[in-house]
Protein backbone atom coordinates (compact mmCIF):
# COMPACT_ATOMS: atom_id res chain seq x y z
CA UNK A 1 0.00 0.00 0.00
CA UNK A 2 1.21 3.53 -0.74
CA UNK A 3 2.05 5.27 2.52
CA UNK A 4 3.10 8.94 2.56
CA UNK A 5 6.75 7.93 3.10
CA UNK A 6 6.62 5.38 0.26
CA UNK A 7 5.09 7.97 -2.07
CA UNK A 8 7.89 10.43 -1.20
CA UNK A 9 10.50 7.73 -1.85
CA UNK A 10 8.91 6.95 -5.21
CA UNK A 11 8.98 10.60 -6.17
CA UNK A 12 12.69 10.72 -5.24
CA UNK A 13 13.24 7.76 -7.56
CA UNK A 14 14.20 5.12 -5.01
CA UNK A 15 11.20 2.93 -5.95
CA UNK A 16 10.79 1.86 -9.56
CA UNK A 17 7.34 2.71 -10.85
CA UNK A 18 7.48 0.54 -13.99
CA UNK A 19 6.97 -3.15 -13.26
CA UNK A 20 7.54 -5.72 -16.02
CA UNK A 21 5.42 -8.87 -16.31
CA UNK A 22 5.32 -11.68 -18.92
CA UNK A 23 2.22 -10.07 -20.51
CA UNK A 24 3.66 -6.51 -20.65
CA UNK A 25 4.12 -3.91 -17.91
CA UNK A 26 2.44 -1.42 -15.61
CA UNK A 27 3.43 1.96 -14.20
CA UNK A 28 2.16 3.23 -10.87
CA UNK A 29 1.00 6.73 -11.82
CA UNK A 30 -0.57 7.95 -8.57
CA UNK A 31 -1.79 6.64 -5.23
CA UNK A 32 -3.58 7.73 -2.10
CA UNK A 33 -4.85 6.04 1.02
CA UNK A 34 -7.81 4.28 -0.71
CA UNK A 35 -6.95 4.56 -4.42
CA UNK A 36 -4.21 3.74 -6.88
CA UNK A 37 -3.85 4.58 -10.58
CA UNK A 38 -1.84 2.43 -13.00
CA UNK A 39 -1.00 2.71 -16.67
CA UNK A 40 -1.09 -0.84 -18.04
CA UNK A 41 0.34 -1.98 -21.38
CA UNK A 42 -0.46 -5.52 -22.58
CA UNK A 43 1.55 -6.98 -25.47
CA UNK A 44 -0.35 -8.37 -28.48
CA UNK A 45 -1.59 -11.82 -27.45
CA UNK A 46 -0.83 -11.10 -23.78
CA UNK A 47 -3.15 -12.45 -21.09
CA UNK A 48 -3.31 -11.56 -17.41
CA UNK A 49 -4.30 -14.27 -14.96
CA UNK A 50 -7.92 -15.07 -14.18
CA UNK A 51 -8.06 -13.51 -10.73
CA UNK A 52 -10.04 -11.75 -8.03
CA UNK A 53 -9.36 -9.38 -5.15
CA UNK A 54 -10.75 -9.43 -1.61
CA UNK A 55 -10.12 -5.75 -0.84
CA UNK A 56 -10.38 -3.69 -4.03
CA UNK A 57 -12.54 -2.88 -7.02
CA UNK A 58 -11.14 -1.68 -10.36
CA UNK A 59 -12.17 0.68 -13.15
CA UNK A 60 -10.54 -0.01 -16.54
CA UNK A 61 -10.37 2.62 -19.31
CA UNK A 62 -8.96 1.67 -22.73
CA UNK A 63 -6.63 4.33 -24.13
CA UNK A 64 -5.64 2.45 -27.29
CA UNK A 65 -5.92 -1.04 -28.70
CA UNK A 66 -8.56 -3.67 -27.96
CA UNK A 67 -9.23 -5.39 -24.64
CA UNK A 68 -11.00 -8.69 -24.13
CA UNK A 69 -12.47 -8.52 -20.63
CA UNK A 70 -13.79 -11.39 -18.55
CA UNK A 71 -15.86 -10.18 -15.61
CA UNK A 72 -17.71 -12.89 -13.73
CA UNK A 73 -19.45 -15.08 -16.31
CA UNK A 74 -19.39 -12.39 -19.05
CA UNK A 75 -16.75 -11.84 -21.73
CA UNK A 76 -16.72 -8.79 -23.99
CA UNK A 77 -14.48 -6.49 -26.05
CA UNK A 78 -13.61 -2.88 -25.26
CA UNK A 79 -11.95 -0.44 -27.63
CA UNK A 80 -10.50 3.06 -27.35
CA UNK A 81 -12.38 5.36 -24.93
CA UNK A 82 -14.54 2.54 -23.56
CA UNK A 83 -14.45 1.44 -19.93
CA UNK A 84 -15.74 -1.13 -17.46
CA UNK A 85 -16.03 -1.66 -13.71
CA UNK A 86 -14.74 -4.78 -11.92
CA UNK A 87 -16.54 -5.09 -8.56
CA UNK A 88 -14.68 -6.25 -5.45
CA UNK A 89 -14.66 -10.06 -5.21
CA UNK A 90 -15.49 -10.63 -8.89
CA UNK A 91 -13.40 -13.04 -10.96
CA UNK A 92 -11.85 -11.18 -13.89
CA UNK A 93 -9.23 -11.29 -16.63
CA UNK A 94 -7.73 -8.86 -19.16
CA UNK A 95 -6.44 -9.99 -22.57
CA UNK A 96 -5.09 -8.31 -25.68
CA UNK A 97 -6.52 -10.14 -28.72
CA UNK A 98 -5.16 -7.53 -31.13
CA UNK A 99 -1.99 -7.00 -33.16
CA UNK A 100 -0.98 -3.76 -31.43
CA UNK A 101 -0.26 -3.04 -27.77
CA UNK A 102 -3.27 -2.51 -25.51
CA UNK A 103 -2.85 0.58 -23.35
CA UNK A 104 -5.24 1.26 -20.51
CA UNK A 105 -5.66 3.13 -17.25
CA UNK A 106 -6.69 1.18 -14.16
CA UNK A 107 -8.11 2.94 -11.12
CA UNK A 108 -8.15 0.74 -8.03
CA UNK A 109 -10.18 1.64 -4.95
CA UNK A 110 -10.58 -0.14 -1.65
CA UNK A 111 -9.31 -0.73 1.86
CA UNK A 112 -6.10 -2.51 0.77
CA UNK A 113 -4.32 -2.12 -2.59
CA UNK A 114 -1.25 -4.36 -2.25
CA UNK A 115 -0.17 -6.70 -5.05
CA UNK A 116 -0.55 -9.62 -2.61
CA UNK A 117 -4.35 -9.19 -2.78
CA UNK A 118 -4.49 -11.29 -5.94
CA UNK A 119 -6.12 -14.72 -5.89
CA UNK A 120 -5.17 -16.45 -9.16
CA UNK A 121 -7.42 -19.16 -10.63
CA UNK A 122 -5.68 -19.60 -14.01
CA UNK A 123 -2.39 -18.24 -15.32
CA UNK A 124 -0.86 -19.07 -18.70
CA UNK A 125 2.56 -18.01 -17.32
CA UNK A 126 2.48 -20.50 -14.41
CA UNK A 127 2.58 -18.00 -11.56
Characterization of the model:
The chain has one helix at 4-12; strands at 18-21, 24-31, 35-42, 50-52, 56-64, 67-71, 74-78, 83-86, 92-95, 102-110, 119-122. The chain has one domain: Jelly Rolls, CATH 2.60.120. It is 7% helix and 50% strand. The strands form three sheets. Strands 1-2-3-10-5-8 form a six-stranded antiparallel sheet, with no helix packed on it. It has a three-stranded antiparallel sheet with strand order 7-6-9, with no helix packed on it. The protein is built from one helix and eleven strands; from the N terminus they run αβββββββββββ. The chain has 127 residues and is mainly beta. Residues 14-123 form the Mannose-6-phosphate isomerase type II C-terminal domain.
Question: Strands, helices and their partners?
Answer:
Blueprint: H1 4-12, E1 18-21, E2 24-31, E3 35-42, E4 50-52, E5 56-64, E6 67-71, E7 74-78, E8 83-86, E9 92-95, E10 102-110, E11 119-122
Antiparallel strand pairs: 1-2, 2-3, 3-10, 4-11, 5-8, 5-10, 6-7, 6-9
Keywords:
single chain; 127 residues; mainly beta; Jelly Rolls; 6-stranded antiparallel sheet; 3-stranded antiparallel sheet; 1 helix; 11 strands; 7% helix; globular
| Approximate strand percentage | over 45%
Instruction: Calculate the mean pLDDT score and round it.
Output: 91
CATH fold group: Jelly Rolls
Major beta sheet, strand line-up: 1-2-3-10-5-8
Oligomer state of the chains in this structure: single chain
Question: Number of DSSP strands?
Answer: 11
The percentage helix is under 10%
CATH class type = Mainly Beta
Radius of gyration: 14 Å
Low-confidence stretches: none
How many helix segments? 1
Largest sheet: 6 strands, antiparallel
Number of domains: 1
